Amino acid sequence: MPAFDLPPDLKTALAAKAEGLSRVDAAKRAGAISETYRGGGTSAPIRTERDALAYALARMPATYAAISASLYSLSEQYPDFAPATLLDVGAGPATASWAAAQAFDTLTNFAAIDANPALRTLACDTVESSRLASLHYVQNDVLAGLATMESADLVIASYVINELADAARDTLADLMWQKTRDTLLVVEPGTPKGYERILALRARLIAQGAHVLAPCPHDRACPLTQPDWCHFSQRLPRSRAHKQLKGAEVPFEDERFIYVALSRSPRMVNTARVLAQPALNKVAVNAKLCTAAGLSLISVPRRDKAAYAAARRWNWGDAVPDEAAE
Question: For the chain, give me the number of helices (H) and strands (E)?
Fold first, then answer.
């Protein structure tokens, strides 16, 4: 899977907004906001332009990378998908809109909805000189306002359903599916709780006729059992400014995430999903795969030179040929 860095237009726009910004102040704001999110809170503490900018500078690279990785996996399973319209639900600074614009050059109509005015303002400012300049961004609660939005070929909700209680989460899932003409993508933090939320939404919408595109190669119940859970990791580079904001020393960050892509139409999925980083030694490649038949723990011996050479290139989250699990 390729690396996913912020688009040049977005980097330029954020850099312009950040001119003269106190890195110490921004780091404090970003830290306080992140602490609220980790505690199960919402975007309510993001009240001002500085709050929104601090949040975007600290978190947007990671969420963009996770959404982009999810879209990449969706495209692998649905290579002829050519959406023209996008609906970004709980859009925040429009991270998913930027990622979708990079993933699909067929997109011509962009719409977004979020209740936070500071994040909406930041999003509208940063898209002014980009392909997203025509973004129609509605400031409203997603549950109250989604019914008024136009349906779209591609609907994305990233890092949103974790902010809702169970009943509201179910309502949002139903509303998003109603607005989905073709494909719905939901991305969540890669935690056990995030995995549980994705599983619940997945099961609810399968019952309404949805079909899983990714990451699962099937529509059946997840074969994993506690304490195991499905999640993935995307590595992204950190700029000097990003390291300052995060109080970090290492030049990269690993974003843990979980996602599900659901389609209106059944699609042939002839791949298995690598559920953890394979263990490589001189004798074999050992890997955990989710397959059409369920969970498979396989060992690809070195003596099978072709299969071993292919398995050496597998990475956590990859889609690999289903026959590799046999």
Answer: 10, 13
The CATH number covering residue 212 comes to 3.40.50.150
DSSP letter for 230, please. Answer: -
Q: Are residues 287 and 170 in the same domain?
A: no
Verify that 160 and 52 share a domain, yes or no.
yes
CA 17 from centre of chain: 25
Q: Are 258 and 289 part of one and the same domain?
A: no
Tell me, yes or no, if the pTM score tops 0.85: yes
Residue 78: left if φ>0, alpha if ψ -120 to 50, beta else—which one? beta
Segment-wise mean pLDDT, segments of 10 residues, the chain, 326 residues: 87 89 68 62 77 88 96 96 98 97 97 96 95 96 95 97 93 98 97 96 98 96 95 85 68 90 90 96 95 94 94 96 75
Residue 3 lies in a domain: no
